Amino acid sequence: MTADKHPTVAIIMAVHNAERTIARAIKSALAEPEVTEVVVVDDSSTDMTLQIAQSADDGSGRLMIGKQAQNLGPAAARNRALALITADWVGILDGDDFLLPGRTAGLLRYTDQADMVADDMWQVREGGDEAERHRLMGDQLSGPRRVDFPEFVASNVSRNRQRAELGFMKPLIRRSFLQEHHLCYQEQMRLGEDYEFYARALGNGGRLLLVPAQGYVSVVRQNSLSGRHTIEDLRNLRDCDHQLLQDFPLNKRGQRALRRHYLSVDCRLQWRLLIVAVKRKDLVACLRCFLRPWPVPAYLLKQLLCEIPRRLQCERWSRGVSSSSL
């Protein structure tokens, strides 16, 4: 049982060009009896997202919709939504995703034990059969357990395996905790803004409880925004670890986790910078990419070894096509 007899829940949604899925997302949130507010902020969509969102209103007076004058990214849109809510708890829902009936009640059962309660996600391919969904954590989570700062950060280090980063989770968060610590999203971040937000909450002493899947369904898209990040997006994600290290008196586990995450992002950043340098034939910039802490040089060499055969194969294919057309 929770400490509050009847805790209220607000669901916030930052959406951009989600006309195909926004109605399903809103309706799934409004279908939850415990949800007293659904706040949608349209991040300057260029399609019919706003109009379709308005048509999804169930007439209960719980839906509030705002529109950004210009596209500022999901962090800014979520901050605007956070400023509007009054409920005891706040949950995040992406415009592509949806909630299964009972998900909110399932999380509320654990709210007396934590400031953030996150459940394992169900994932389903876009356009796929919903019956074929699988859990993000797989068999790693058999029951409720606490997650501290080092474990959370370490889970977000990219590995050559099925992605199970806790930065993807969409928890319920105690609104009074956010207010007490003046927590908000970093608006310059368009990649990993959730990771930074949750890490900062944990750094401020937030208690995170991870529980088995209660009914959040994440729709995995081939061309998601997180897959179209820029060099600046990667740089902001990498550098947020430096800021977290400065802002909190972390133990050695926390410091090591942040360094590993920093370097994992730097690997991806330096690879992008190396590609640009090669295209510009800038030898100095190429060398600069390799003059980074380990394991960045090893990562770059591995990427090159994978890329060279692919390039050669493409060239051979191109020559073959040219020859056959003569």
Short description:
This protein has 326 residues and is α/β, with parallel strands linked by helices. It is built from eleven helices and twelve strands. The longest helix has 29 residues, at 252-280.
Describe this structure in words.
The protein is of the alpha/beta class. It has 2 domains: 9-223, Alpha-Beta Complex (Spore Coat Polysaccharide Biosynthesis Protein SpsA, Chain A), CATH 3.90.550; 231-324, no CATH class. The protein is 42% helix and 16% strand. It has 11 helices and 12 strands. The protein has helices at 22-30, 49-55, 74-82, 103-108, 149-155, 175-180, 193-203, 231-247, 252-280, 283-290, 296-324, and strands at 9-15, 35-42, 63-67, 89-92, 98-99, 116-119, 122-125, 134-135, 145-147, 172-174, 208-211, 216-220. It has an 8-stranded mixed β-sheet, with helices on both faces. A hairpin with an 8-residue loop joins β7 and β8. α9 runs parallel beside α11. The longest helix is centred in the C-terminal third of the chain and has 29 residues, at 252-280. It is globular. It starts with 8 loop residues before the first strand and ends with a helix. Residues 321-326 have low confidence and may be disordered.
